[in-house]
Amino acid sequence: MTISYSIKLILTDIKRFLVVSALFFCALLQSSAANAISEISISAERIEHAQGATKNTTLNLDLRDALPKLSLRSGFKAKSSPDWFQLKFNCSLASNLGSGRCSEGLIKSTHLEVPFSFELDRLSLNGKPDISATLTLNNANYSDEAGLHATEKFNGKFKLALQSMARGWAWQSQVDWLSGEVFWQPFYVAEGGHQLQASGTLNDILLNIDVARLQVKNVGGLDVSGQLRLSDYQLLSLNGSAPSLDLAAAYPLLLKPMLEKSALSNIEVGGKAALQFSIKNAELKSFELDLHHIDVADINQKFAFYNINASLPWSYDEPKEIMFSFDSGELLNLPLAKTNIVATVNRFSLTSNNIRLPILDGALSLSDVSAARIANQWYWHLRAKLEPISMADFSSRLSLPRMDGTASAEIPLVTYAGGRLTTDGSLQLKVFNGAATVSQLVMQNPLGTTPKLNADIALRNLDLGALTRTFSFGAIEGKLDGDIKQLELQNWKPVKFDAVIQSSAGRYPRKISQRAVENISSLGGAGAAVAIQRSFLHFFEQFNYQAIGLSCKLRNDVCTMGGIASTPGGYVIVKGSGIPAITVMGYNQTVAWTDLLARIKRVTTGNTIIK
Amino acid sequence: MKKILFGLLVIAGLLSNQLALAAADLELNTPAISALKGSMQQRHGQLAGFYASGAVGLTRDGLIAVKEASAVALKDRQSLNSLVASENNDRNALYKEIAIANGHAEWEAEIRSTFAQRWVQKAQSGWWYQDANGWAKR
């Protein structure tokens, strides 16, 4: 005998539906007709509740076999969600209802399709309730509307056991992520093999995690314990420890997505790290990150550091000493030797008396270093000194024209605040046996998309011999002064300056080769002066000169040129002395900056032949 | 070919902007502007397919946004996100730099909205853009 009741119910309370159904089943099972009943089915068209609603609900109890079978089909919707979910499952129950198994389960909506099965391993409600159940997801798919949180073909097991205690419950759970892809912006996990095991207690006020162990495949394990307050979900405490993390595996999975905008966004890394942390009342109180034998290399070869070892403790309450060292490295192709850095970290600021980075045969020595992070912005200042480095080595490493001698520099106080880098005083460089002074140096967004730089540069007594040899300009003997005022670079290219270069005052040998004469005149425009004198110049390798000078005022991509003196038709670039005296004239008063650059490039690459 | 199309798009955008915003010279070419254009042009090759598939659309404020990440495999979604973020960085900087190059930093909003209209008008058919009513297809 099959009884089928169809109830058209609009109930405002889900409890009422359950009570009605339960009473109904009991009444039927207790009735004298029970033995004759093989199947009971109840359906409700729509049930409304404060938290949501259901529609087309059918509950079916099949009593034909020894073990009763229960099946449910229903549409449901939470009040906050616009989507309806379809739910169905079939269960077979043990006769004492102490265990059961539900299969062919499915929850489905527009963004979700989760086939599942459910196993009630233990259900004892006598005395102290004791429940244990396992939920298995088979090839579950989920995606939010934007597709920024999504999972495909997820297979996993969630096991939960609860035992009643004097106050609250004891719980044990285990989550196995067996296989499947997950993208949870910004993290992407390609495959499973991860596990979370946790146990603790639960009462009306607190969720206690006595121990939780997260094991991420290939990366390592993290152990945590803590307390969560349920009224506002505040983390009262959380202590964690990951004694050995494999960075080669952790980087693509966990670190790269978080470092996207930083210099570490595109690196190869190997080595081990250990992390400990402590959170109290939702605030990070302390951590310690230790790095062991780590190699880091930028894929675009901007930097590399080998065998990094570091101890990086931090505490909210007290200053900590940090240590950072590496055996060797490279920065923009410049080799770095073994370096040890010691600094003090005091909450959100870092200070160090001295940081010395050995570069080539010299070193960059930073002193009075202080950095702070305030409202998500970096602020720092430091002084720096470049201990003499060999220019021959330096230039070949950076694929620059070969330079001789050494370079050293004193850099006064450099301050960086709000994306703007400024210097107090002037930066002194020793180059080409002379001196370069950079003053009024200001940089904006030095690491951004549109870096800008303003400075005044003064050059004094540069050795023209060394300079012209370096840039294969044709030999000139003498000394050179230069003033580049109001220099403005955008994206490291000049957009504005007032530049004058001229031979230094004083007594020293002044000789210029024929090739240099030709090159100089080509910078000032067509070499008419040279052409006229070509026939007899031809016999001389070099000439004496009294003065050399050239100026360029750059505005709007146009350079207004001048020399050491003006003449009605042009300007004098080289004024000769003795016999034969040579005068090189410039005739182009204005030159497009790009043309001038092209001329300089032609000249310095040594391909210029002026006939 | 994509580069040429992009170039035409930028030129067309700039030319017609000039009509709408007669006072601003949108063709000014400072090193910052050309660096930004260069970087956007280089990125366009990577973005073109995403415009066509509807994964990415043009927004009303002259930027781009992930419209339908589901059009892209899970493993590529984060690189799509960062591509969009980098493009928007460049676009924001471009509008600002053009305003600065004109000596009128306060024109940025106007330059941005003119660009927004031009990007949409010059979009290829099948690309998505945002208007007052939400997403629409060209």
How does this structure look, described?
The complex is a heterodimer of chains A (611) and B (138). By secondary structure, chain A is mainly beta. Chain A has a domain of 114 residues. Helix content of chain A is 12%, strand content 62%. Chain A is built from 7 helices and 40 strands. The longest helix of chain A has 17 residues. Chain A is elongated, with a radius of gyration of 40 Å. The termini of chain A are far apart. The C terminus of chain A is likely disordered. By secondary structure, chain B is an alpha+beta fold. Chain B has one domain. Helices cover 59% and strands 10% of the residues of chain B. Chain B has a 4-stranded mixed beta sheet with strand order 2-1-3-4. Chain B is globular, with a radius of gyration of 15 Å. Chain B starts with a helix and ends with a strand. The chains are: A mainly beta (611), B alpha+beta (138).
